[in-house]
Amino acid sequence: MSPAPPDEAPDPARIAWIAADWGTSNLRAWAMDAHGLPLAEAGSGAGMGGLARDGFEPALVALVAPWLAADRRTDVLACGMVGARQGWIEAPYATVPCAPTGPAVEAPATDPRLRVRILPGLRQDGAWDVMRGEETQIAGLIADDPGFDGVACLPGTHTKWAHVSAGEVVSFASFMTGELFALVSTASVLRHSVATEGWSAPDFAEAVEETLARPERLAGRLFGIRAEGLLAGLAPERARARLSGLLIGAELAAARPYWLGRDVVLVGAPALARAYREALALAGVAAREADAAAMTRAGLAAAWTRLANTERRPA
Amino acid sequence: MSPAPPDEAPDPARIAWIAADWGTSNLRAWAMDAHGLPLAEAGSGAGMGGLARDGFEPALVALVAPWLAADRRTDVLACGMVGARQGWIEAPYATVPCAPTGPAVEAPATDPRLRVRILPGLRQDGAWDVMRGEETQIAGLIADDPGFDGVACLPGTHTKWAHVSAGEVVSFASFMTGELFALVSTASVLRHSVATEGWSAPDFAEAVEETLARPERLAGRLFGIRAEGLLAGLAPERARARLSGLLIGAELAAARPYWLGRDVVLVGAPALARAYREALALAGVAAREADAAAMTRAGLAAAWTRLANTERRPA
Using CB atoms, which residue from A184, A219, A230 is nearest to B254? Predict the structure, then answer.
């Protein structure tokens, strides 16, 4: 499954379509063969957050031009914030409960070598929530295991927990844990006490157990990290692990209805997924891990196959 | 008690000493008479955070020069972050349980018209915590009511709860609620959904009650503010009140051992003290309010009287 290095551009004749994961900060694309396998991978920092409406097409062409055939349109199927209101074109949210990936929206492109479609995100009414991008990873999980009945936890800036059953997302909940960790560790008074690298497994575990059992302690224990650094020389690496543990423990306390007694699959960056796995183990849950990029590709591949079949073109 | 406008500089002969509240962001000073009453007030943005070691004396002189007599030293007694390790000179913390204001440390000054002393902050070992500045407001509470036995709540960037009994601070706890509110409302994804002004009392109350009863919900309800803004047009003023209520409710859940069944006095900026008073009322606590600047002056005056008596000078 590992893609070829980007300098070995595959023959465009072998490329059936292009998969794109286009988030707020990054654009990542894969040249896909007709069987849903990646032939090449490319990435850039041209995230949605830094692009004006007319900047999307040039950013995409700059990345994938070596993969485009001159004499036909190549399909591009994208997911993520590129489909937000501030993105290339809005792909309106589908409302849960529903299948994770809904009808794609075609983006306006002028280059005759491209046809770009964007998958919508999901919304939840009442217990208001939204996601864009993670739904495609959930689609990948279902494509890999169509009978999956359990919970997907997708750790990140805004961690998502989703209850998946019978091929649908039943409900989901978002937690700002990653963003809070970044803000508190780099922009609050704790920036003086918390390292940007390093780890302490015992401090992480102790902190998870504390806020999992007593989530109200989060509010008071944060400043304690600063005070212990000042007064007792708490090592900045230990402070970092403790801050992460306090936040993840409090998240687990809130997400208990999702993980309690369920089959949990973690989909996220390896270091973060590992932290969640260890925290869940302390709560008695043996979570599995799935590769985030592979799930994104699998979800896009499943959606592309559906699109291609609908259009009576060879999948 | 209201000081004269700063343009009516009092006769330096009437000025017995100068009180200074010198925090991270601001410097505020009062010309005090021999009875501990303010004759004039002045303030500047020359906070500790923006000053190098040799910048403190010029910043102070620039503010209080009109109050200084040419032919004698005028005492200045200061509290706050000016006594931190990064301040003018370190005034080492006193360790609780102890009286709120400990021995003052003289700062190195070259101007012959000044003698500057700085009050130390408080530290707590074990349940590690620190304060600088708030201890002087607590001293003011005790000076006003020597028999006070209860809890001082000092809302701010880092809200402090202190158990006060028999003239001493028995224990205290800090919460980063104010700093979290500022970071989340201006630097996180919620900045798109939360107003910088405006309020909704019902949303505040509902949010306080939610996290006071279920503090674990804080983690999940934050992103919900963003989602409800996107999907259901939640008004940014309502979002602001809700964010504040979620954070203060979670703080009250954690600070329960401080306020439950106690006499609570709030010392802080009026709008913030009012929010805490309303939140405490929802928890069944009728908190009183005390003026923060008056408490600072009263605490400094009590410490200055003690200093003057020790030195056998007229108080």
Answer: A219
